[in-house]
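Re: [ENG-882] Designed sequences occasionally contain unexpected residues at chain ends

Forwarding the minimal case from QA. Structure tokens:
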């Protein structure tokens, strides 16, 4: 098959949606399919997709993200011409989320040209603090979801929470399916205590105090403003933030920074797994998510997680060693105080978390489901 994947950015931008698209696209390419990926052109500090995936770089305006942190690029007319040719050249178009203008352009082109369209919907609306952004998301949710998710050849939801958000709102051309994101189980595995101590020394952390880890874009949606209000109350904790974005802890006022703070740029999987393994806790008080890939990766690495009640509703069943909070500073602080008073998990309990994750999420199984779906639509 010839498959065109469309996302707002390439994976190096650092968002979960882009990371998921990278996994699916590269794994389909490794199975012999001709894969093209259309997304906003990388900046000088980012790299394009490598290997068997052909990149189709879109250019235009990225001012909204620069001003507000909301990732909504606008592609220019020349890029849209390239996008149209990309649609013409393939058998199927795979779009990740309908929110983005370039993605909707790709959808319209595919419908006009008679190409099957699959939309993988990762999130519902995001409750931004900015009233204009909230209004825009609400309007798109009300008016654009029926004409995209409802009319595409197949809608895929990545979590129960995302599916519930759209349930009963409009008819679908075909019953939606649930395909959870996967985890690379050859990389994200737990480590024994001795190895974890070695990793702490390697990354410059002490072995005498807990390490709490955040991984994600430094934006409001991921809970950075909550952490900005709470972190300084936990002076004994070694805080590690991995990512990039306008709300970087490096930009916080000195009074808001915890005394033991390390901020790292995006890490490749081989390095990221070491940070999961050495950490005592992943802290991700995000909102407006389906179910974040970093939570899946952390659990597969044996790391307990703290997420919001809202995010936890994205997966059915009781996840082991999972803590939840409301998206309020008081709630987050109370849960963190309880976690601070607890002893670190031993190797046995960390393996229990990892084994549970391995039973739920595997990229090989996820990509096989997409491959079967795509083949059925291209017959």
């Amino acid at each position: 098959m010839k498959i065109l994947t469309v996302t707002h950015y390439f994976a190096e931008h650092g968002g979960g949606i882009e990371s998921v698209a990278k996994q699916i696209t590269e794994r389909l390419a490794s199975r012999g399919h001709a894969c093209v990926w259309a997304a906003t052109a990388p900046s000088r500090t980012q790299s394009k997709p490598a290997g068997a995936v052909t990149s189709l770089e879109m250019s235009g305006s990225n001012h909204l993200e620069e001003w507000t942190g909301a990732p909504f690029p606008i592609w220019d007319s020349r890029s849209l011409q390239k996008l149209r040719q990309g649609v013409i050249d393939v058998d199927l178009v795979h779009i990740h989320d309908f929110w983005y203008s370039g993605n909707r352009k790709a959808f319209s082109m595919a419908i006009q040209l008679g190409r099957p369209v699959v939309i993988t919907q990762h999130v519902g609306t995001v409750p931004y603090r900015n009233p204009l952004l909230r209004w825009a998301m609400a309007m798109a949710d009300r008016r654009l979801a029926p004409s995209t998710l409802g009319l595409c050849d197949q809608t895929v939801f990545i979590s129960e929470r995302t599916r519930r958000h759209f349930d009963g709102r409009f008819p679908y051309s075909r019953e939606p399916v649930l395909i959870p994101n996967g985890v690379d189980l050859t990389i994200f595995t737990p480590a024994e205590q001795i190895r974890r101590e070695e990793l702490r020394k390697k990354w410059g952390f002490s072995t005498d105090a807990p390490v709490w880890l955040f991984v994600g874009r430094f934006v409001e949606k991921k809970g950075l403003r909550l952490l900005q209000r709470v972190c300084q109350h936990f002076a004994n904790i070694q805080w590690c933030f991995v990512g990039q974005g306008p709300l970087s802890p490096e930009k916080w006022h000195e009074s808001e920074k915890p005394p033991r703070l390390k901020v790292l740029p995006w890490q490749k999987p081989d390095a990221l797994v070491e940070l999961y393994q050495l950490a005592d806790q992943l802290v991700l008080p995000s909102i407006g998510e389906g179910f974040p890939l970093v939570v899946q990766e952390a659990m597969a690495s044996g790391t307990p997680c703290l997420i919001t009640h809202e995010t936890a509703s994205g997966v059915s069943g009781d996840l082991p060693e999972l803590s939840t909070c409301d998206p309020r500073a008081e709630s987050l602080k109370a849960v963190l105080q309880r976690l601070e008073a607890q002893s670190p998990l031993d190797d046995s309990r960390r393996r229990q978390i990892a084994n549970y994750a391995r039973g739920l999420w595997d990229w090989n199984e996820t990509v096989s489901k997409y491959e079967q779906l795509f083949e059925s639509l291209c017959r």
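QA comment: On inspection the terminal residues look reasonable. The two ends are 10 Å apart (CA to CA). Proposing we downgrade this to a documentation issue.
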